[in-house]
Every structure is written in structure tokens, then in C-alpha cells.
Specification:
- It is a single chain.
- 36% of the residues lie in helices and 22% in strands.
- It has helices spanning 43-50, 74-80, 96-106, 111-124, 139-152, 169-182, 195-198, 211-217; strands spanning 3-10, 20-27, 32-36, 58-63, 66-68, 81-85, 157-161, 187-191, 203-206.
- It is built from 8 helices and 9 strands.
- The chain is α/β, with parallel strands linked by helices.
- The chain starts with a strand and ends with a helix.
- Helix 3 crosses helix 4 (111-124), helix 4 packs across helix 5 (139-152) and helix 5 packs parallel to helix 6 (169-182).
- It has a 5-stranded parallel β-sheet with strand order 6-7-8-3-9, with helices on both faces. It has a 4-stranded antiparallel β-sheet with strand order 2-1-4-5, with helices on one face.
- A hairpin with a 2-residue loop joins strand 4 (58-63) and strand 5 (66-68).
- Bound molecules: adenosine-5'-triphosphate and magnesium ion.
- The site of adenosine-5'-triphosphate (ATP) has 11 residues, from helix 1.
């Protein structure tokens, strides 16, 4: 499903300087887009708007052509958007596959129906042992489980905010590759500081610092 931001502006409450101004973004169905740019340019803010966590001050978000807002309710949000973050937050004592099944069970699915698919998803992202207990996974393996968990919910859109930032560069790139490969067909919006990770996405968009900052820097 496509993801579109149109004319998005964000000014955080209690501040005067906008973080995003008239920001447009289109991620066509089944494609991936990476946001890059210096710290503070609004990548996480743009993702929070796209992922329906933050209501923009102006503008709108469309998922598959339908205007969606923070007020659409948990049911819609859970169905449409899955997040992959820097920190994975797996249930440490549960197995990899149990962690992947969590969103499916939360959405009313049954373990019997969903388990096979969860195991297949784990394989697709490079986790061979679905019964491994989460707290014994390496950082890279844990992040792979997080990717499988995001995909298990069959979201319209995956929003990934620096999903590889806690990993060493080589592992991070492997995990990013696994994410983009496993998510083929799902629309992905990703923010990263790693140019090699960004280059794996179909499109890279660079956010620029505001004028004032650039003038001071030059
Ligand atoms: N809740 C908030 N209230 C006020 N200002 C905020 C809030 N969240 C973010 N900001 C400000 O908005 C700007 C953009 O922040 P954002 O986190 O979107 O940047 P970013 O590009 O993701 O940075 P990084 O690369 O460090 O993750 C920053 O100046 C930040 O201080
Ligand atoms: Mg950020």
C-alpha cells in the first residue's frame, strides 16, 4: 500500500520554530524509501507522522489513498503500521517464534494457524532456530526477530527508525538487507545515518538542516 505525506508541517508544542515545513513524501506500494540527513533535521518526526503516532500541525497522511490520522484508533493503527526501532524490546524469556506471534495473537489470530508463517518469516530474515530464547540472541539476531515480528502483523506499511543504529556496521547492513528483502511487497519508510543502508532502499531522500544552521556552519 502506498504511503503519502502531503504538505506536512510540524511545530512541537511550546516551540516556535517548525521542524518540518510543507513536507511531501510518496512511497509507492511495495517500495522502500530511506530518509537521511543530519541529526535534528526531523527524520524521526517525519516517521512519527507517517506512522500515525504524531498528528502534524498541518498537512495529511494517506495510506493506500485513504486519509489516516492519529485519531483512527488502535485497531486501524495496528493493522496499517508496524514499527521497527533501534531497540527491539523482545520478551526476554520467550522464544523467538513466540515473540513474532505476539502481534498476531493480539489481533485475534490463533497460534496453530500462525506458527508456520512465523517460522517461515524468521527463516526469511535469517533466524534459523525459532525456539531460541530471546534473551540469548545476539543484537543482530534480536533485531531480525523484531523485523519478523513487524512483518507478522501483515502491515500496510513498515516504519523503521534507525533500525541498525545499535549494531556494528557490518551486522547493521546485513540486518537492513534482511529487512528490505523480507519486506519485499510491503511499503517501507526508513531513517538511517548509514549511507550503505540507505542505498539499499529504492529511493533516498535527504533532509537538510534549516537555513539558520546552514548559514552558521558555512
Ligand atoms: N517532543 C518534542 N518536543 C520538542 N521538540 C522536539 C520534540 N521531538 C523532537 N524535537 C525537536 O525536533 C527536531 C527534529 O527532531 P527529530 O528527532 O525528528 O530529528 P532526527 O532527524 O530524527 O534526528 P536524529 O538523527 O538525531 O535521530 C530537533 O530539533 C528536536 O530537538
Ligand atoms: Mg531520529
Amino acid at each position: 500500500m502506498s504511503l503519502q505525506l502531503t504538505g506536512v508541517g510540524v511545530t512541537y508544542p511550546g516551540t516556535t520554530r517548525p521542524v518540518l515545513v510543507d513536507f511531501d513524501l510518496l512511497v509507492p506500494t511495495g517500495t522502500s524509501l530511506a530518509l537521511m540527513g543530519p541529526s535534528g533535521t526531523g527524520k524521526s518526526t517525519a516517521l512519527a507522522v507517517a506512522g500515525l503516532l504524531l498528528a502534524p500541525t498541518t498537512g495529511e497522511v494517506r495510506i493506500n489513498g485513504r486519509s489516516r490520522t492519529v485519531r483512527d484508533g488502535a485497531e486501524v493503527l495496528r493493522r496499517e503500521v508496524a514499527w521497527v526501532l533501534q531497540t527491539v524490546n523482545l520478551l526476554p524469556r520467550r522464544t523467538a517464534v513466540d515473540n513474532v506471534l505476539l502481534p498476531v495473537l493480539a489481533a485475534g489470530g490463533t497460534r496453530e494457524d500462525a506458527r508456520g508463517e512465523a517460522v517461515a518469516l524468521l527463516r526469511r530474515v535469517g533466524v534459523q532456530d525459532p525456539e531460541q530464547v530471546a534473551r540469548t540472541l545476539s543484537g543482530g539476531q534480536a533485531q531480525r526477530v523484531g523485523v519478523a515480528r513487524a512483518l507478522a502483523a501483515r502491515p500496510s506499511v513498515i516504519v523503521a527508525d534507525e533500525p541498525t543504529a545499535n549494531l556494528d556496521a557490518a551486522t547493521g547492513r546485513d540486518v537492513a538487507r534482511a529487512l528490505l528483502t523480507a519486506a519485499a511487497g510491503t511499503t517501507v519508510l526508513l531513517a538511517t545515518h548509514d549511507r550503505a543502508v540507505a542505498a539499499m532502499a529504492d529511493v533516498v531522500v535527504e533532509l537538510e538542516p534549516p537555513e539558520q544552521v546552514r548559514r552558521v556552519a558555512s
